[in-house]
């Protein structure tokens, strides 16, 4: 079996699955995909209702912690990341959102030619197979199935009624001309089953494309170089150290935390920081691991005795068993729920050009990412800040490639972020206090008695954490001292090395990051194919 391929892709997440699949469409191009986790093709992944088993623990999940966060009273935050083919698309809430058109136009305005909204829209459409929507903003026939929910939960209508009562506009499609408004999310599912990036791009081709080799349980430990050219990857599989070689390129798709970690382990980063761990510098690139951005998120929670919510109660447990039986029969009902069934995008001030907060309305009461279950049933509502000013970073804790990286999102590090979160809290409260939703509440678990701005600031610092959208640690840019890759996603100053994942985003987009990361994989494959044709 040869260990030399045209391309070696490190990381089988959303970006890695897309780029590996598209490059291997040409039978004359050989591709190896290395994934540290497993195949992620069992019922825990495919059954949406099993998501809680993964998010809250270590099933298909790296389950990282942050360093203590000064903006959060020194608390240590939680950063679940998908481990296995599909990456975080195998454990996420499946919400299909692209962000706002202005996000991509901003990338282009920063000097990233080819990344405007008009440039990236064709790749969103190419990736998509939308069963409900079409027209100029949606695609049919792509690998990623997108559809409406099949949970049949009547609370969705209650949510929309509350939105009307609170005088928010209703939006049927958050990925079309306008984003502002509240509504029900579309999800990456087909027939009530999760449709991860792996299920769309990799699983159908396993054993069928002779030019695509997928290695699972393969933990990359360093990039191999010949002078300034990446020529391969060293990885651990079981207890064995192996090497695999790339004729054309090594493509890093290990995600916002582990792509910069692998670069630093390979001597690419800030020379002084690397020297502290005894790592020789391959290439001084100070932006590696800098520019970390994530959506800070606050969760309201309410108990409810309405028979529509998941939770630990005699009625709730009975509904789970009934739901499992229905799911097995017809792939409908509560087990198809992504929990965050409703939501939307709102402006905290009318003079804003674009929405600055996003809601995720959940059909269960979620506390600490599901890691602190409590007796009773209820619902919750997330509010996150879409374009935070705070910037964090990722760095090495040691030269051990199996150690977790140090992660500092710097949540609420800038006072402006806290100010907007206070406004976001009040805006969300308007919705939650609307009669339709108020009627479902039996108690306010976290925010009873919170009245003043000082009260709100205090509880935000006590309870804010991630809503799972970290980006930016291998920033795309030109003439920028923190830029790691150019607009072709090639690592500055090196040859044969590209980054294809959410870490390349120069700024955080206004929405969920899975669909944009798949778009990045699609666009990267097109750019690579164009270069191959030109050569």
Structure description:
Residues 82-105, 255-269 form the Glucose-methanol-choline oxidoreductase N-terminal domain. The protein has helices at residues 14-23, 43-46, 51-55, 101-109, 117-127, 155-165, 197-201, 255-265, 271-275, 314-330, 415-432, 435-438, 453-463, 514-534; strands at residues 4-10, 31-34, 64-69, 75-79, 128-130, 144-146, 181-184, 189-190, 193-194, 212-215, 218-226, 229-237, 240-252, 268-269, 283-284, 296-303, 311-312, 340-346, 357-362, 376-385, 393-395, 406-408, 443-444, 465-466, 497-499. With 535 residues, the chain is α/β, with parallel strands linked by helices. The strands form 7 sheets. Strands 7, 16, 17, 18, 19, 20, 23 and 24 form an 8-stranded antiparallel beta sheet that branches. Strands 1, 2, 10, 11, 12, 13 and 25 form a 7-stranded mixed beta sheet that branches. Strand 8 (189-190) and strand 9 (193-194) form a beta hairpin. Helix 1 packs parallel to helix 14. The longest helix has 21 residues, at 514-534. The protein is globular, with a radius of gyration of 22 Å.
Q: How would the blueprint of this fold be written?
A:
Elements: E1 4-10, H1 14-23, E2 31-34, H2 43-46, H3 51-55, E3 64-69, E4 75-79, H4 101-109, H5 117-127, E5 128-130, E6 144-146, H6 155-165, E7 181-184, E8 189-190, E9 193-194, H7 197-201, E10 212-215, E11 218-226, E12 229-237, E13 240-252, H8 255-265, E14 268-269, H9 271-275, E15 283-284, E16 296-303, E17 311-312, H10 314-330, E18 340-346, E19 357-362, E20 376-385, E21 393-395, E22 406-408, H11 415-432, H12 435-438, E23 443-444, H13 453-463, E24 465-466, E25 497-499, H14 514-534
Parallel strand pairs: 1-2, 1-13, 2-10, 5-6, 13-25, 14-15
Antiparallel strand pairs: 3-4, 7-18, 8-9, 11-12, 12-13, 16-20, 16-23, 16-24, 17-20, 18-19, 19-20, 21-22
């Amino acid at each position: 079996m040869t260990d030399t391929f045209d391309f070696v892709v490190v990381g089988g997440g959303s970006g890695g699955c897309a780029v590996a699949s598209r490059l291997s469409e040409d039978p004359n191009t050989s591709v190896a995909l290395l994934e540290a986790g497993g195949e992620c093709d069992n019922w825990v992944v495919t059954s949406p209702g099993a998501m809680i088993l993964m998010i809250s623990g270590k099933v298909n999940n790296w389950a990282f912690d942050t360093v203590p966060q000064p903006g959060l009273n020194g608390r240590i935050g939680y950063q679940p990341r998908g481990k296995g083919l599909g990456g975080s698309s195998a454990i996420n809430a499946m919400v299909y959102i692209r962000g706002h058109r202005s996000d991509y136009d901003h990338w282009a305005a920063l000097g990233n030619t080819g990344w405007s909204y008009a440039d990236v829209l064709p790749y969103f459409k190419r990736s998509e197979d939308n069963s409900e929507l079409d027209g100029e903003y949606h695609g049919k026939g792509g690998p990623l199935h997108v559809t409406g929910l099949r949970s049949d939960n009547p609370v969705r209508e209650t949510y929309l009624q509350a939105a009307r009562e609170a005088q928010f506009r209703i939006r049927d499609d958050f990925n079309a001309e306008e984003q502002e408004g509240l509504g029900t999310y579309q999800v990456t599912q087909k027939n009530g089953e999760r449709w991860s990036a792996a299920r769309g791009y990799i699983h159908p081709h396993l054993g069928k494309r002779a030019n695509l080799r997928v290695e699972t349980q393969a933990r990359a430990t360093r990039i191999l170089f010949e002078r300034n050219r990446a020529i391969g990857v060293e990885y651990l599989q079981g207890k064995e150290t192996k090497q695999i070689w790339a004729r054309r390129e090594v493509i890093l798709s290990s995600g916002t935390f582990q792509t910069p970690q692998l670069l630093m382990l390979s001597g690419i980063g800030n020379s002084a920081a690397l020297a502290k761990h005894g790592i020789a510098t391959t290439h001084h690139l100070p932006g590696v691991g800098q520019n970390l951005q994530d959506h800070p998120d606050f969760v309201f929670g309410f108990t409810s005795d309405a028979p529509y919510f998941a939770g630990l109660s005699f009625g709730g447990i009975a509904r789970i068993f009934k739901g499992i039986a229905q799911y097995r029969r017809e792939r409908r009902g509560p087990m198809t729920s992504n929990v965050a069934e409703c939501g939307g995008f709102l402006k905290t001030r009318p003079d804003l050009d674009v929405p600055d907060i996003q809601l995720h309305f959940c059909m269960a009461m979620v506390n600490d990412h599901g890691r602190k279950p409590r007796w009773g049933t209820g619902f919750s509502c997330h509010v996150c800040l879409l374009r935070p000013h705070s910037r964090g970073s990722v760095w090495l804790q040691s030269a051990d490639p199996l150690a977790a990286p140090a992660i500092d999102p710097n949540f609420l590090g800038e006072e402006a972020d806290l100010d907007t979160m206070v406004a976001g809290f009040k805006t969300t409260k308007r919705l939650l206090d609307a009669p339709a939703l108020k009627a479902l509440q039996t108690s306010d678990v976290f925010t009873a008695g919170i009245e003043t701005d000082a009260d709100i600031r205090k509880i935000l610092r006590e309870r804010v954490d991630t809503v799972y959208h970290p980006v930016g640690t291998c920033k795309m840019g030109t003439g920028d001292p923190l830029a790691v890759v150019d607009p072709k996603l090639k690592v500055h100053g090196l040859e044969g090395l590209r980054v294809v994942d959410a870490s390349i985003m120069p700024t955080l987009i206004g929405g969920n990051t899975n669909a944009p990361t798949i778009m990045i994989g699609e666009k990267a494959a097109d750019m690579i194919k164009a270069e191959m044709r030109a050569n």
